[in-house]
Amino acid sequence: MKTRKGFTVLELIIAIVLVGIFVVLFFLQKQNVEAMNRDEKRKTAINAMYYALEEGYYAENKAYPENIESADVLPWIDPNLFTDPFGMNLWTSGSNYSYETSDCKDGKCKSYTLRAKLEKEDDYIKTNRN
Q1: In which domain, by residue range, is 63 found?
Q2: What is the pTM of this model?
């Protein structure tokens, strides 16, 4: 009897399909991990802004700013934290970050809400504690 060396067409097709499935699963999981990483960066930025508002700005002014139009308002934190993972700053429309104030008078506010829109979870929200 003569034996053949090599693979049959069916074996090759099965191998290609399996490799294709593994590649698709790998890239789907990679996208999930990257989105979760961006969400963690957003949470870190919001926490830094929150503590700068509470421990820095409020401690000096006994009020909160009406808006955050530049990194100069909160000089206690790294200015890069005001930029979301897609390159938009807190003070520009369309950013994943927002700063909303209430009960304001003469540029000084009694309360605020910091918000980050996350990809894999609900919005991450921090409100004033004073």
Answers
A1: 13-127
A2: 0.81
